[in-house]
Amino acid sequence: MRAWQFVGTHKDFERVDIEEPTAGPGKVVIDVKAAGLCHSDVGILEDEKWLENMKELPVVPGHETAGVISEVGEGVTDWKVGDRVAVWPMAEFMGYMVNGAWEDRAEVSTDALIAIPDDVTFQQAAAATDAGMTSVGALSTAGVEAGMKVGVIGFGGLGQIGARVAKLRGAEVYVAEINEAVWDRAREAGATQVAKSISEFADAELDVIIDYAGFGVTTADALKAVKAGGRVVQVGMGKLEATIDTYSLILGKKQLHGSVGGSKEDIVETMRHIASGDLKPAITEIDFEEIPAGVQQLADGSVVGRLVAKVAD
What EC number(s) is this enzyme filed under (predicted)? Predict the structure, then answer.
C-alpha cells in the first residue's frame, strides 16, 4: 500500500510501498480517508530534537487521522467494520512512536478511537484530532471562561479554532496575525480586534495569551503584553527556542505554561461545534501524492487554514 515515510532530519519524505497492517488484539485497522498536515511535520525535517519523540526510523508521519474501520482485532466489541472514526493521537503518539496517517491503512488502538458525528466530514474530523484538540486543550490549560480577555497569536490551523471556541465560551478575543489576508475571517470568528503583533494589545489588559505560532519572538512578545499576574500558554512550536524578558516575567508575576495536545474530550467538543455549525474551520485540501508539497507550503507560510490530504474517497 502507499505511504510516505520520514527517514531522517534534513532528508526528504520518501514515497514508498509497504505491507498492509493487520488488526492485533484490542486494535482495529482504519482505511484512512483524510490525513492532516501540521507545522510539526515541517519541524521534524529541520530539527534533530524531534528524534527524541520517535522510537525508530523510518516512520510514517501523520497524526491527524479520520477514516472507516475495515478490520477489528481479537477482543474488540465496541467498534465494528464500517464505523466512521477519528483518532486521538496522544494515545500512542501516532506518527512518531507508531506509524501515522500518511498511508492507505493504519492500525490503531481502540483506546484512541472517537466516533465522527454524521454532520462532520472526514476532512473536518482529521483537523479536529490535532488542530482542534490542541487548540481547545490550550484553552483548558489557560482556564478560559466567560468574561475573560484572551489574546490569540496566530490565526492559522490552530488559532482559528482556538479563537472561535474561546468566543463561544464567552471570552473577549484579540487576535495577532501577521497575514492580513485572514483578518476578515478572524473578525467573522468573533475577534474584538486584530493586529499584526500581540504587542499592539499591551494596553488591553489581557488575562491570558495563547501563542499558537511559537516563533520565538511571539513568546517573548506575549510575556510582555499580558497583564500583570496574567498567563501565557505556549502551544506553537514554529521554533524550539525563545529568548524571553525575565524582568517582565518576574516583576509582573506572570506565568508561562506549556500545553501539548489535549484530551479525547477536546476533540469531541471541537467536532460538536463543527456539527452544530458554530465552528467552521478553513480547510485546504490536497491529494495524497501532494503531501511533501503541502509541507513546503506550511514552511512557506502560504497555507490558508488547516491543510488536509485526501487519502481516499
Answer: 1.1.1.1
